[in-house]
Amino acid sequence: MPRLPGVSHREAVRVFKKLGYKVCREGKHTIMARDSSKILVIPRHAEIDEFTMGGIAKDAGLTPEQFRQQL
Question: Model pTM?
């Protein structure tokens, strides 16, 4: 899977909010949901690891290229 380096927690949350996800809960991770079947867990790090961010984008149904376009 192509990598998504250098994505911060705030950028990731902003992108998923644009896609219709809402923040359900915040703690050490931010939990976002769009439907009852689509739930994303985003770690609250200054910079999210590229493999982790690629997996989160995949869970949301996006390719890494589609995610980069939303940034």
Answer: 0.87
Confidence class for position 1, pLDDT limits 50, 70, 90: low
In the predicted model, is pLDDT for residue 4 greater than 90? no
Q: What is the pLDDT of residues 29-41, one digit of tens each?
A: 999 999 878 899 9
Rounded distance, CA 56 to CA 41, Å?
7
CATH architecture assignment, domain 9-70: 2-Layer Sandwich (3.30)
Any idea where the domains of the chain sit in the sequence?
9-70
Residue 44 DSSP label: -
